Input
Amino acid sequence: MEPINKHQGLVYPLNRGNIDTDQIIPKQFLKRIERQGFGQFLFYNWRFHDDGTPKQEFSLNDKKYQNASILVAGENFGCGSSREHAPWALQDFGFKVIIAPSFADIFYNNCTKNGILPVQLTEQQTKQLMTRAETEPYTITVDLENQLVSDAGDFRASFQVPAYQKEMLLNGWDEIAVTLTHADKITEFEATRS
Amino acid sequence: MNEPKTIVEKIWDKHVVHREEGKPDLLYIDLHLVHEVTSPQAFEGLRMKNRQVRKPELTYATMDHNVPTIHRNVIKDAVSKKQMQTLKDNCSQFGISLADIDHPDQGIVHVIGPELGLTQPGKTIVCGDSHTSTHGAFGALAFGIGTSEVEHVLATQTLWQAPPKTLKVQVNGELGSGVTAKDLILAIIAKFGVRFGTGHVIEYTGEAIKNLSMEERMTVCNMSIEAGARAGLISPDNKTVEYLRGKRHVPKEADSFEKAAAEWKALASDPEASYDKVVEIEAAEIEPQVSWGTNPGMCLPVSASVPDPNQAETANSKEEIERALEYMGLEAGQQISSVAIDHVFIGSCTNSRLSDLRRAAEVIRGKKVNPKVKAIVVPGSFSVKTAAEAEGLDVIFTQAGFQWREAGCSMCLAMNDDIVPPGERCASTSNRNFEGRQGNGARTHLVSPEMAAAAAIEGHFVDVRKFTEATLHS
Output
């Protein structure tokens, strides 16, 4: 996967809690056998009418967020299904960082396997970011190395990320290749159980 | 004396392949279940790197999400067809056993694992599906994974996992008559919220849990993910052992089975074990539940009224309630029992086992489905279907006006043709009431099989306890 370290980008605020993976990518788009091309289906039922025309009232269709690469959302983002199509769709659409007060476990994990950085900030900090981004084009910088979110003004927020996930994201490693360096240990383990 | 341990700690310790400071543990996986939707990209990843499946014999595949439930072999959707063919090709290329669409072992992956005895206490079990927590009913550590992890398990038979926090959900007392395992888990999620289990493995304990049958325990563990927990489990006991006795993949010889059974029972959490978090709920206070909103925590007793956003408490904010009511087409203060339904779906990995179908059939025996309601029953597996037919349940359902279908995930997530049309309302025995889950614009109400059956007859929600009583006296 692509490594990610420091990312500067435009914020798209989506002020809803418990956004589940069925909303991020509805099931009718899970039938494809490729990893690519899911961006067009992101938040499909929120973005489009039944006839495929865009719902103007849904904020992601607003031109001002067209080049957004940082999604800021409410608590428990990515709850529900384990479908990795959700991070694939977010990434393919152009999002590189997701900020929320909390994430569902499987979704968080899936992001880190794809070079998307999930950042957990407090409820108050995310609200602050959302409010700013709702009123004006708002660019922030997310620095994984130093675990810091900042803007051109005085917003500064540090965040936690497990050391292992941080290392994987910073280096963009192929996790399977890393694990296979322990292949002899796996073989040894298997030998004790047969 | 050894330090008291939870079942999670006991299973974990037996599966650590490699441990080093500052890293998650490298955990060995005993059983990897595979289905058509979340695996194609994983197999493709293996091919691109010229990697093999490390342990095909610990991997088992079936088709469930896409499969048609009317004519098995008529798959109209070309993309679905290709996805199913891809699984077939991948299993054949990598030497993995597959319960194909016309195989007698086919069914929902979380229904067939236990049926075949693949699911066993103490195993680490994964699948690219969040309802893998179902297998926890047997005292297995079972959790859903994404496709990258599917690929990782295929290639290495391991996963990097940080030890989870433990959460004990103690259910005191006994469930009342007519109150089911489904009502219990819905009430738990309603009480503690859709993310109280995040970062934890839930262990369900207490008198009410001990009294549940294995199939009821599966219903409870199935919905752990709806509380945010990747896994939920129940310590094995004699019921666990008796369920597994004679199943195809458990030890055959009496001696080796008894030895395994003793090991399984020894996995039970020690009485003095400590947990990161403990919550309690009184079983006797639980009534039959109906979900009214767009997440499984938005659930109420059937006797209650739809909440008023202006009286929002902490669990759901005013905006959340307003959005949910708008999507669901409900009015604040409306009696839940007054809500009329268009569809009934009895099925899914939560409630599609033989005992679920038996209990629903008991409710509808000799009655007719309300003419405004379209009702379907989708058995969880080919084997459930065959067993149900052998005891005549299909006749009870079809005579009442239900459609009797072939096994699969079906209307739980509507990836096949079983879709609830926009704006229509479904009483569903499945696990998720998210927006659009059963079809774009579809309105889902989660209930037990008994409640779904009673609603099918009445055309609106009704307390199944009163319904059954009224029928007895009529």
About this structure: Residues 25 and 79 of chain A are 12 Å apart (CA to CA).
